[in-house]
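LAB NOTEBOOK - FOLDING QUEUE
OPERATOR: T.R.
BATCH SIZE: 2
PURPOSE: Compare the predicted structure-token outputs for two unrelated chains run back to back under identical settings.
PRIORITY: normal
REVIEWER: second-year student, initials M.K.

ITEM 1
FIELD SEQUENCE / FIELD STRUCTURE:
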Amino acid sequence: MKKSKTGRGRQKSGLLPELMAAHQKRTLLIRLLSLALGAATIGQAVLLAQAVQRIFVEKAAPASLIAVFALLLGVMAVRTLLAHANGRIGLRIAADAKKELRARLLRTLAANPLITARQGQTGGKVSLALDTVDEADGYFSQYTPKMIEASIIPLLILIAVFILHVPSGLILLFTAPFIPLFMALIGIQTKHKSEEKFEQLARFSGTFLDSLQGLVTLKLFGRAKRQEREIERSSLSYRDATMDILRVAFTNTFALETIVMLGIGIVALELALQLVVFKNMQFHTAFLILLLVPEFYNLLKNMGTAFHGGRTSLGAIRNIELTLAENGIRETQTAGQSDNQSVRGNTVTGSTMMGSTVTSDVDAASDLGASRGDQTPAFAASQEDSVPEKSFPPAIELSELSFHYGSDAFTLNAGSLLIEPGQQIAIVGKSGSGKTTLLHLIAGLLPPSSGEVRIAGRALTQASEDDWFKHVTYITQHPYIFAGTVAENIAIGTDRDVSRTEIVQAAEAAGLSALAAELEHGYDTIVGDGGRGLSGGEKQRLALARAFLKRPSVLLFDEPTVGLDLHTERILMQAIAELSQQATVITIAHRLHTIRQADRILFMEQGRLIGSGSHEELLDTLPPYAQMVEIQRKGITT
């Protein structure tokens, strides 16, 4: 996953502080628990030293120490519970933070799905939303609690040791900084290695998914072996990145253990000299210090281990933050909610299909969400600003409309245009002239870079997504068919509960009844993910059945009859004609007979709308259009 300099510059947006700010009460509770944990740690050492002093030095009877042992067990139990409570709080912070990170990513990627689809591989995005977010867990569940504990408990132990014996306290004071210093040096390397690891993982995931989806094509073109080597190369790169992090981790562990061992050894040597040689220290004091010193260093060592994990997690969080920044969206804490599908008896609710929310027939570009920040949103977040029902079919007005995918990329300038209610519009032009982009802007699937689309006099960016999509159906050349029954796939055409009778009637109107009769289980036959088992014409008829069930006021087509046989095309054209009687229809047209039937033709060339009018008007006034028509006529007659 390549990161641009621009993304890195915008990364300083404070995503991590923002996430932690939402858990101030929990972090405060961890601090309070850490204070109690520090007191319990010192209390445990004091009681244990006292028990050893009484038994081995004062030769007291064990029976006389029952109260001390009971208190010691109680303190140990309290210490265990406090440590467990800190861990539980860290896990809750991690769970909520991951939920928020994943929600932000999904909202960002769904806000402008058509733009997102152009950027990178699908597998990489899936890996980012799943694996990378999961890797961020360590920062919140381990790093945060351990760092808080390490900032409080060692300080309490250091104060206690200074009170007991100043030279031992000075040894701790001067040796302890080596641990955080070493952690900082290792942490920088770990963070860089972590970022490299997640880039390799995203690249490997994307390559693997692309290869899996295009396996048949790779076989047919003899590229399977080459792609196999590419997957192997990506896999080995990810392995190497992971092993580099493990190498740093092992080095980190060895260095920390060495520092801790040397620190404890120096203190033990100094105490031995005071106790045995100079004989100016009591056994109880020396033993108590020896109990506290390992606790002091172990806490710092655990902090070092957590620090390594935290730096790895920071690499994951940075990747997420860069993705959010590169999409130009500053998320808020609100998230949209989608309806759930329910199948009860003969009634089917079609707003969700196998876990995938769908609002129209556009290829899996369904849950658009509301984009925020410095980018123009495709829809308003509020549901209050709705277009009145009586306005449908609506007048659609383009006002100085333009769109660009980015610097040095395709730019569309559609200018201004008024589409009257109920008109049949054909958008024509050469491939790459901007026809599909214009249709996506009208559909609300892309936010305009400048200008606006107005529906019944109201800006589309100010209308609610649900209100607009309730009246729109968009059928592409390759409508998406979900894994499920034929009936369920038809039912996603509407957000209301529909009966089996309504589904059957919609299928008959779309010419799908003959297919259903041939299937083993009729409308309850399972079709594969992506429509496996259905021909192109059958997929188109299923998409039209969705439209018949929905009865939209605005129909958008991306020439759905391209590549179909004449019989299937005739069935589809009849169904489209019936749907068009009470709707505004906008079609990307390639065939002459479709162009002739339109009330108005929009001619696109190199991203600009250069002509608008009837077929006869454009033949007389627009030479590029006349040339296109002539080429088609020759193609038909030859």
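ITEM 2
FIELD SEQUENCE / FIELD STRUCTURE:
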Amino acid sequence: MPKKRNAAQRIGAIGEDRFRLSCQENFIIPNKVEHDFGFDFLCQADLSADFGETGPVSGVFVGFSVRATDRDDGRIRLNRADAECLLAAQFPTGLALVKLDGPKTASVYFRMMDASFIVELSQFLTSAKKSRHFTPKDMRPMAEIRDAFRKVSAVGYLEQVRADAARKIAEPITGPVQIRIHRDSGRQATLITSLDLYAWFEQGTPAEQEALYLATFGEPERRDRRMRQLALNGKAMGGLVHLPQPYVLAGFVMDHPTGVCVHSPSGSAHLPVLRTANERHFGYIHPAGFALTVSSRVEQDGQYVHMMRALADPDSDALLGNHPALLAFLTACHPESVFSFDDRDGPPLDARYFVNLGDLAQCAAAFRDAQRLDGWDAAPVMVKDMASPESRNSLVFLASAADPQTQPIPRGLLLTTPDVEEEDCDAVPGAVNVPVVCNLADSSLVVWFSGHGSVLFHNGDPCGFTVPAFGVDTIEVRARVPSRSLFPQVHLGPRTLLWDAGRWAQGDAGTGRWADDLRLRFQLD
């Protein structure tokens, strides 16, 4: 059977010949690539002024991918691999379209890989499409190719058009941006400067939005570190992929000094803050890691609203005791309080609209009250403790322990099975010491309550106590005691007491390995 030649092979071969001839007619030297992996020709410009003159040849090679078609509309197709090849080349490139009207007549068009073409192909690659089509109306006539060669032969052309394309890709997402290539001996980098630095980071998922929120409004000293951990916006970064690495991203973060005042029936308090914002929120941050924020308009239940939130940085190790102005501000926050802002006209904002503010205010008030306890000075309570439900529970318990009108430790307790009654026990006078473990974010406070009363025995074994009143003997700061509970607790051997919402409840011990000295102690008279 003889060899056969199909129409596609015929069109391709004639198309390349027509491109070659058109190049010669326009003083472009076409060099056919022997091993073709995306580029059919490497072309140089003949710089002679006319046909009969001897002149120099440009030292710049321009790669051309040639596509031929006999369709009436002149349409050609590039797939994703074709686009990636054009974008990845480290030399100037172009696409040629040869429209055949039979084997003897053809029209040749071209398009250089300029900034707009890079944008088109980059957007195609970020889409779900498998191919991209072009027609002669998308291209330039071959008569203009010498002018195009002069532009692409300029020093730095390739990096310049890629930087321009990257800017055009990024600016719809990030706003105004400047991109510069920096190079010195042995080193190079792409410098990116943006007016809205936050816009360069992914915000598609709730986790990404929360990470950006925390970087913006958390403790200012942690901002740079957090921003380095954020995922960069894939679409904005898409145009940078072929520019020199590493990328250096810089921008402007506005921290404007101002103040916020809380007004409540019991008094007012003023807090110096910094005003800052990202695309989704604006807010007021205190350097210790507290913030009040207001979102841009969002739709909720068919209405547009602004979501308001109070934030305590969950990583801030600033000691609460070192920030009396913040404590005074938070303890003045009540549901009926309102906020006014030094840099903002308009009606005050109601405190009750700020999510989480009630918990933070309760925690700050508990911290204030707990300071009356003996030995409190060593307690390392931090801003991040206000963000922890376990720490808040501990502080509320400690505030209760500091109140002389309350009795947080039970006056009487039986540790054995329910069928044993107090009248079945023998009472022996003695002292009772009860260690309550109150977990904070990074440590545990062990509060020892002591009282004198009676130790109860059943069949010769201690099984409980009755004590008229307890007092705080001392507070120890220890390494954090492991616990599965979020509440202050007393370890009783086989059982644990948990202090939940002002009441003690017994449960099975689930505390892991506790130190032997963190147990109920009896000392008989």
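REVIEWER COMMENT (ITEM 2): The mean pLDDT is 87.
FOLLOW-UP: none requested
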